[in-house]
Design a protein that fits this description.
The structure is a homodimer of 118-residue chains. With 118 residues, the first copy, chain A, is of the alpha+beta class. Chain A has helices spanning 12-26, 36-53, and strands at 3-6, 29-33, 60-71, 74-85.
C-alpha cells in the first residue's frame, strides 16, 4: 500500500486532501512521520480529513504504531499512523458481517430483516 | 470526563499506563496536548497503551480533533485525542466485544434493547 510520508513542513490541509483521496479509493491509508514536527502535522491532517469524509458517513479513526525505518543507513524509529473508518476490517471493506456460525460468509443478505414491528 | 494533559516532557510510558487505567475504568479517555512535542508524546503513549490493553481484546483507536483552550488568558489551539476501543459506542461502556461491528457504530446503543418486539 502507498504510504503518505509527512514532514514537519508538510501543509496539514494538503496532507488531509491526499489522505481523504486515498481513503475514498482504498478504504484506508497509512501515514509515516519521523520526529515531533512531522507527527504534529500528520495528526492535524487527520483531524482535518475527518471533516472531509464525515459528510460521506465515514468516521475516521487512527491507530498509531512504532516502525523502524532506515534512512541513509541510519536506523530511526518512525511513527506509522493507520487511518481508516472506525468499522473498517481488513479483508472486507466497510461493513463486515456477523462472526456467528450461521453466517458463513460475506454474501449473507441482511435485507428484509428490517424488523418493522409497528 | 477527566482529561489527561500531556506535555512535551511527559514520559510516554507513564502516560500510557494512565491511559490504559482510564480506559479500563471508563471505557474511553481524552488526552489534550499543546505543541508538537506534547502531541508526539501523546501519540507514542497511545501506541504503547495499545499493547497494554490488547491482551484484553481491546483494539484501541484514537480520534484527533482541534480544541481551543485559554491558558493565562491567551487562547491557544490544542489537540484533543479521544482514545477508545474501535467498536466503542458512547452510551455503552466497558464491554465491547464482538469485533465485528454489525452496524456502523455510534448511535447504536445495544444496551436496553430488551427485545421490545412484543
Amino acid at each position: 500500500m502507498e504510504v503518505l510520508k509527512v514532514a514537519a513542513k508538510s501543509n496539514p490541509n494538503s496532507v488531509a486532501g491526499a489522505l481523504a483521496g486515498v481513503i475514498r479509493e482504498q478504504g484506508m491509508a497509512e501515514m509515516q512521520a519521523i520526529g515531533a514536527g512531522a507527527i504534529n502535522q500528520a495528526i492535524k491532517a487527520i483531524a482535518i480529513a475527518r471533516g472531509f469524509v464525515a459528510p460521506s458517513g465515514i468516521d475516521l479513526v487512527c491507530v498509531p504504531a512504532f516502525v523502524d525505518v532506515t534512512i541513509d543507513e541510519i536506523e530511526k524509529t518512525a511513527i506509522k499512523l493507520i487511518v481508516s473508518p472506525r468499522s473498517y476490517s481488513r479483508g472486507g471493506r466497510g461493513r463486515n458481517e456477523l462472526p456467528g456460525p450461521r453466517a458463513p460468509a460475506k454474501n449473507q443478505s441482511t435485507e428484509g430483516q428490517s424488523t418493522k414491528t409497528d
